[in-house]
Specification:
This protein is an alpha+beta fold and about 70 residues long. The chain has a single domain (about 1-70), classed as Alpha-Beta Plaits, CATH 3.30.70.20. Helices cover about 15% and strands about 35% of the residues. It has helices at about 15-20, 55-60; strands at about 1-5, 25, 30-35, 40, 45-50, 65-70. It is globular, with a radius of gyration of 10 Å. The mean pLDDT is about 100. Bound molecules: iron/sulfur cluster. Iron/sulfur cluster binds near residues 14 and 62.
């Protein structure tokens, strides 16, 4: 499975980091980062994972709709 993070829509609320610090951390620019993710371009990042775990709840809670699970 893949976690997709679209940073262009991130408002830096920190919800994903609070819910799922396993996969997300705050960056110096005030937006969240998907840890160890591959850059896809256009501020989109993806990380392949075996277990989505808390990232699903982070996706459900993100007010910007920036996190997607595929
Ligand atoms: S929950 Fe969404 S908007 Fe908030 S910091 Fe995380 S990615 Fe950005």
């Amino acid at each position: 499975m893949k976690i997709i993070h679209d940073r262009s829509k991130c408002i830096g609320c920190g919800a994903c980091v609070n819910i799922c610090s396993k996969y997300f951390e705050m960056s110096e620019d005030g937006k969240a980062c998907l840890k160890n993710a591959k850059e896809l371009g256009g501020e989109k990042y993806e990380l392949e994972v075996e277990d989505v775990g808390c990232a699903q709840e982070a996706a459900d809670s993100c007010p910007g709709g920036c996190i997607h699970i595929e």
